[in-house]
Amino acid sequence: MTAQAQPGPALKGNSSAAAPVAMEVDHIVKRYGDFEAVKGVSFSVAEGEIFGLLGPNGAGKAHLSA
């Protein structure tokens, strides 16, 4: 599974200019022992953009930020 996102447009000013990247993740992997819960996910979040991780309870979302 690979997800790639491009920064969205700036919130103010010229709508054709991209907002600065606030966070970038490249090929993240999260393992629980021998089990790979997340493998090779990449994304970026632009400054001013709202971003959230969705998934079922117990899926390991909180551990991705650690």
Write structural notes for this entry.
The protein is mainly β. The chain contains one helix and two strands, in the order ββα. It has one helix spanning 61-64; strands at 21-32, 35-46. A two-stranded antiparallel ribbon has the order 1-2. A hairpin with a 2-residue loop joins β1 (21-32) and β2. The protein is elongated, with a radius of gyration of 14 Å. It starts with 20 loop residues before the first strand and ends with a helix.
- SSE ordering: EEH
The number of helices is: 1
Number of beta-strand segments: 2
Q: Give the radius of gyration.
A: 14 Å
* Biggest sheet character: 2 strands, antiparallel
- Terminus-to-terminus distance: 21 Å
pLDDT averaged residue by residue: 75
| Structural class computed from helices and strand pairing | mainly beta
What coarse outline follows from CA principal-axis ratios?
Answer: elongated
Widest beta sheet: strand line-up:
1-2
- Which residue ranges are poorly predicted, with pLDDT under 50 across at least 5 consecutive positions? 9-15
Helix content: under 10%
Q: Indicate the proportion of strand residues.
A: 35-45%
